[in-house]
Amino acid sequence: MKIVFNPDGNHQGGSLDKEQRATYLKLCKQLTSREPDLDYPKITAEILAFTKKEALAMIPVEYSEAKKIMIGSSIESFFAEVPEDTNYIGKVNLICLQCILLFTEHCMDPAAKTFPVNLNDTFEFYSYLKSINWRSYIHLREFIVEKNWQNRQVKQLYLSTSEPSNGIIYLVTILDYLTISEIIETCLDNIILCGMISKFEYADGNFFSPYQFLEHDITHGRNFQAVCFERIFNSREDIQSFYKYCVNGHLSSKEEYGLKLMIFFLIHESHCDFFPSTENKDLTIEFIIDSLTTTRLINMERFVNPNDLGKAFPKAIQDKSAEEKPAEIMKYLTECAVLYQREFHSWRMAEKKYGGKRKNQKRSRKSRKPLRKTRKRV
Fold first, then answer.
1. What is the Cα–Cα distance from 376 to 378, expressed in whole angstroms?
2. pLDDT 10s digits, 295-335
3. Within 13 Å of residue 301, how many CA atoms lie on the same side as its CB?
4. N or C terminus of the chain with fewer C-beta within 10 Å?
5. Low-confidence winner among 33-37, 176-180, 356-360 (lowest mean pLDDT)
């Protein structure tokens, strides 16, 4: 999913106008709400109407007219030939997957034997999907549900809704972007919103195909769950409580953004180590900065890259020269870390004062599964 950080207070982008985007996002929240009394067939139909319109609009303008017509005809067929399916989220996801496979097929070199950046060996499963009758909703669903692909990413698009793994729901959307606040709030509600693109685009510094872009979004959600709640045993309720404390209006807009950025790193980049899961763990500025700048998953290289996390910082920093930028970023991160440390301790005291339920938690000795990569290692 493309992210608009808007550290200076403004953002724009996306093909939906403000009112349409609000309506669509409301429908997505309803579909993933787990409320038993909602009219899910109606909600699903409205989401699919948005999806069809947007998928047709996403056909790259640089394609030939013949190619545009061929892609448009295929998209029309995906929405016309859907059988009854009461897994409504899975239904939306699989139709989006069909569109994504179609877009990937047409933006790839037909002679290509792999993706230009084949992170996590995504081309292998993409090839499996393309080898079946993926244009048929029934065949695609059977392939994903019945085959024993173990933990293959796209399997989560259907099974996570009917057989939730740790309560996480994945939903593929037509949203062109999410704000940093939307990313944080949906993740903390156990909802991972994934994006659909129609040609190669950058994500985390990698130039990804539409199919890889989807797997990449799913990876972020699975890593967040694996690190924060299966390895470190943080409390989702505690992180959510801390976030709400930070945005309750007692900070300036610049301070609030700085804290949102830190919580974004914690959630989206799976850096839950600097949200201590035990009360006696010391949270130092040095530890926070070291966690943000020297690890495998996040480091200064990513912060200076405009196709990665470089746009997370205020424009005054983005406009600095290549020589000045690292020092300016480090200065800004240090200011954010000091603010984060202060607010974290204030929140912890408030939790105690108002009967918070923080407890010392023992680390499990469960075997640790390796993290999936969200960017290429260099």
1. 6
2. 777 888 899 999 889 999 999 999 999 999 999 999 999 99
3. 12
4. C
5. 356-360
User: In terms of DSSP H, where are the helices of 62-121?
Assistant: 65-80, 88-107
43 neighbors 99 (Cβ within 8 angstroms):
no
**DSSP secondary structure letters along 316-337:** HHHTS-TTTHHHHHHHHHHHHH
Q: What is the Cα 225 distance to its own chain's centre?
A: 12
Separation CA 220–CA 12 (nearest Å): 24
Q: Determine which helix (DSSP H) or strand (DSSP E) holds 207, and give its type and residue range.
A: strand 206-208
Q: Which residues, including other chains, have CB under 8 Å from residue 10's CB and lie 6 or more apart?
A: none
Q: How far apart are CA 104 and CA 141, in angstroms?
A: 19
CB 191 within 8 A of CB 33: no
Q: Which alpha helices (H) appear in 197-284, and where do they start and end?
A: 210-224, 236-246, 253-268
202 three-state secondary structure: strand
Distance of alpha carbon 226 from alpha carbon 371, whole angstroms: 8
Spatial separation of the C-alpha atoms in residues 229 and 218, rounded to whole Å:
16
How far is C-alpha 296 from the chain's CA centre? Answer: 19
Q: Are strands 206-208 and 201-203 parallel, antiparallel or unpaired?
A: antiparallel
pLDDT of residue 365: 37
Instruction: Tell which residue, 240, 304, 225, has the closest CA to residue 270.
Output: 225
pTM over 0.70: yes
Q: Which residues pair with 169 in a beta bridge?
A: 191
**Number of CB atoms found within 10 A of residue 99's CB:** 25
Which residue, chain included where needed, has tokens 């097929």? 105
- Per-residue tokens: 90: 């899975």
DSSP letters along 138-195, please?
Answer: HHHHHHHHHS--TT-GGGHHHHHHHS-BTTBEEEEE--S-EEHHHHHHHHHTTEEEEE
Q: What is the dihedral of CA 19, 21, 26, 27, to 10 degrees?
A: 110
The predicted pLDDT at position 277 comes to 64
Four-point Cα dihedral 130, 208, 267, 27, nearest 10: -60
- Taking 90 as the threshold, does the pLDDT of residue 66 lie above it? yes
Beta 178-179 vs 169-173: how paired, if at all? unpaired
